[in-house]
Amino acid sequence: MSIGLTPPPERDFPAVRLQQRKQQLLARIDADRRPTRRPVRRRRPLALAGALAAIAAAAIAAAIGLPFGGSGGASPAAAAVLRDAARTAASQRPTAPPAAGQYVYTKSEGLFQNTAVTHGQTINFYEPVTREAWIGPDGSGRIRETDGAARFVTSADRDAWLSAGKPALTGDRNTDETFRRGGLHYFDLSKLPTDPHALESLVENRTIEGGPPGDAETFTILGDLLRETYAPPGVRSALYTIASELPGVQLVGPTDDHLGRRGTAVAYVSQGLRHELIFDPRTAALLGEQTTVSDPSQVRSLPAGAVVEWTSYLSSGVVDSTTATP
């Protein structure tokens, strides 16, 4: 029998494009579906039963000097921590952006939720993914991914799988693709303004990356600009400044990522989902992120606290070939 899957995690934005769009997975699914190419960021749409959009992955931070923006903003606790992160980001030693023949390399591990509907059964399951991306300034590069065996979200999902006759689920797949010039999307962040007001205008006007209006989407875009990209310290600091003044950002505090590394987390809640960004307070580097269910009434088939997805970033840097690592 055939098996119907909800739209799988879009492997178009690092191991997936559009990791949690506010208010609009269904409304924008056609617009957000890219050609079969994999851009540079780690953002993935959620494949939930009933498909809800979600919030975004985030940036950390804050301004050096006077507070940025007008009224509102992140919670006072989050803003204070993010201002420290912004200062830390700005103090990092700059490195040269990738030149012709070089690549931005990122390795990550993650777990992503998907849903299968077959034989009248709805089966929620997780897909573990290890991803390596090499993205060149000309859009050439390589994407290598290994999907682990599917894991059931709850015992009820396993029972549904048994009732459906143990259908094959996605997982246990290895892909290794190379792309010629223009085959991947590369963000050249080296030329973005470091002034927070100028950069905020580009983000809010959706000049750098398209998307619907709203703070949740802005939060997503800020996070996108930090994933699988080359972002100079000044640009990172400006992104963090914008994020520190974004209404809805809350401080979680000391948090371990899923690989056991200690960091500090901030969170944004939208559409029944809570997204946490975990960063290293010593370097302001992104360690990982996690999305969990905060309001089950808005997310069908998943209980409060259920993990929808997580990603941990293991390694990144500029390398000289699509076989090299930092």
User: Per the principal axes of the C-alpha atoms, what is the gross shape?
Assistant: globular
The amount of helix comes to 10-25%
Number of helices: 6
Mind telling me the C-alpha Rg? 19 Å
Total beta strand runs: 11
Taking the alpha carbons of the first and last residues, their distance comes to 46 Å
Characterize the main sheet. 11 strands, antiparallel
Order of helices and strands: EHHEEEEHEHHHEEEEE
Q: What fraction strand?
A: 25-35%
Could you list the spans in which at least 5 consecutive residues all have pLDDT below 50?
1-71
Count of individual domains: 1
What structural class should be given to the helix and strand makeup?
Answer: alpha+beta
Q: Could you report the average pLDDT, rounded to the nearest whole number?
A: 78
Brief digest:
The chain is α+β, with helices and mostly antiparallel strands and 326 residues long. The protein is 20% helix and 29% strand.
Keywords:
single chain, 326 residues, alpha+beta, eleven-stranded antiparallel sheet, 6 helices, disordered N terminus
